[in-house]
C-alpha cells in the first residue's frame, strides 16, 4: 500500500473513531449523567439509549458491509441491499410473521423474526442472483429487477395492513421506512451475535473478493472457487441484512452510500474497504440516531435521513458516470 | 488463384461427438489408441532427442512433458486424441473461429472438466489438482474479462501480484507491455489495446515467481487481440523469452504469419479437432492452411523465416 493510501485509511479510521466517541459523549451529555435525579435518567440510558445506539451501530455495520460485498459479488456498483430488493423481501416476511403469528407463539417472535427476515432476504437475494447471472454486465437490468421486487413486496405489505387493525399502521411505517426505536436488550442479544458473525465472515472473504474485479474466469484462474464464494457471500449477506431488517426495518441507501464514499477515498481493496465500511456504517447510523435524539424528533424514520443523504449521491454518481448501465 | 474453393461447412450434426458417459480407458497411461494419436499429426513435437523414437512419443510419463491430453472430449466442442507440450515449449494454436481453441485452453487450465479422457499437468491428472494449487503453477488469460469498477490499473494489478515482490511490475514485463505510463489511470477508461496489455500483465503476475524460476505454465487466449503492431511483436518476444527460461506457454492467435515464426510448435485446429501439430514449417503448409481456413495462401521459405500471405480472401460476389 502506498503512502498516500495509508494516510487516507488512517484518516478514515480516525474520523470514524472520533464520531463514535462523539456519539457516546453525546448521549451521556444530552441526558446529563451528572443530574441529581439520576435514577430515572439512568433507567432511560440503560434501557433505551444504549440499546438504541448499539442497534444503530450493528445495523449500520451490517448494511454497509453487505452493500460492499454485494457490489463485488454481483459485479454491480449499484447493488445495495435496499435498492436491489433484499431488505424488502425480509420486510415482507417480517410483516407476514407479525400479522399471522398466533397469540401463543408471540413470545418467541424475537427469535422468529430474525429467522423469518433471513429467509425473506435469502429468497430475494437468490432471485436477484439468478437474474444477475443472466444479465451479467447490465447494471441497470439488475436494478430494475430489484425495484420490481421491492415495489411488489411493498405493495403486499400494504395490502396486508389494509386487512388488519388500524393500530398496525404504525408498524407499516416501521417496516417500510425503518426505525431504531423498537429495539431492546432481548432483540440485541439475538441480533447482535448474528450480525457480528455475518460481518466477520465477510471480512474473511475480502481477499477472494478482490480477485473478482477481473471477472469470473480470471478469479477462477487465480484460485478462487467463484461459485462457492458467491453462494457463501450471498448467504452471509442475507443473514446480515435479514437480521438488520428484523431489528430496524428497511433502511435505504446506507449500503450504497458508505462503500461508495469509502472507495473514492481509500480505493477498492476489500481488505480495507470491508472493515472500514463496517466502522463507517456503524458511526453513520449512530450519528443519525443521535441527531434525532438531540433534536427530540421522536421516532424520526431512519430511512428518511439516509435517503436524504443517499439519493443525491446516487444521482451524482450516475451523472458523473461513476456507475454505468 | 482465381478459383475459389469455399465449400459450405457441413458439420455432420447427427454424428457429433457428444458423449454422455465418461470412461476411464485412457487413464493411467494405458493408451488403447496409440496408433490413432499420430494419425492426424503431421510432425512430432520439436526436436527433443527423446521424442524421436515412436515407441515413447506419447509416453505420458516423460518427465519433460508438462501438459498432455489423451482422448479428451468436451461436449461437442473439443475432441483431441493425443497431444502434449514439453517444458520450455512455446506453442501457438491457430484455427478458424469456433475451432475449439478457447475450449482447449480452458480444459488445459483445469477450468473445464473433460467429459472423457485425461488431462495431465506436471505428471498429475487434472482432477487431482485443487484450484488453489493450480493457481500457483499455471495462469490463464481468458478473452473478455469485465470490470464495472473504477479502480486504477495499479490497484487492479496489485490484487493479482504475488505478495513479496519488490516492484509491482518486473522490468521485463514493463519492457514488453509498457504499462507504467497509465498505472494511475482507471481500468475501465483505457483503450482496448491498453486494457489487453494490462490483462496480459495481470495474468503473468499471478505466477511471476514461478515464471522467474522457469517453472510456470502460461495459457494465453488471443493475447494479440487489440495490440498495435509494435506490441504484438513485443509480446511474441516476451513469450519467447519466457519459454527460453524454461516456462511452457500455449497461446491462441489469428496471426498465422507471426505465429509460424515465433513458436516452437504450431497446433492447427478445426471444428474441435487437431488437424495438424508439430514444427511450424511442417504444419503451416499450403494444403493444411487452405483446407482449414478456406482461403488461398502463398507460402515461401527464407532460411528460417516463413513468409505467409493470404492471396484470395473471400469474394462477396
Protein architecture, described:
The complex is a heterodimer of chains A (325) and B (317). By secondary structure, chain A is mostly helical. Chain A has a single domain (3-319), classed as Orthogonal Bundle (ABC transporter involved in vitamin B12 uptake, BtuC), CATH 1.10.3470.10. Chain A has twelve helices and no strands. Chain A is globular, with a radius of gyration of 20 Å. The radius of gyration of chain B is 20 Å and the shape is globular. Chain B has one domain (59-312): P-loop containing nucleotide triphosphate hydrolases (Rossmann fold). Chain B has helices spanning 101-108, 131-137, 153-158, 171-177, 192-206, 208-213, 229-244, 256-262, 280-283, 286-293; strands at 65-74, 78-86, 90-94, 116-121, 124-125, 138-141, 217-220, 248-252, 265-270, 273-278, 296-302, 305-312. In chain B, the strands form three sheets. Chain B has a six-stranded mixed sheet, sandwiched between helices. A four-stranded antiparallel sheet of chain B has the order 2-1-4-5. A two-stranded antiparallel ribbon of chain B has the order 11-12. Residues 1-61 of chain B have low confidence and may be disordered. The interface between A and B is medium-sized, with 27 and 31 residues.
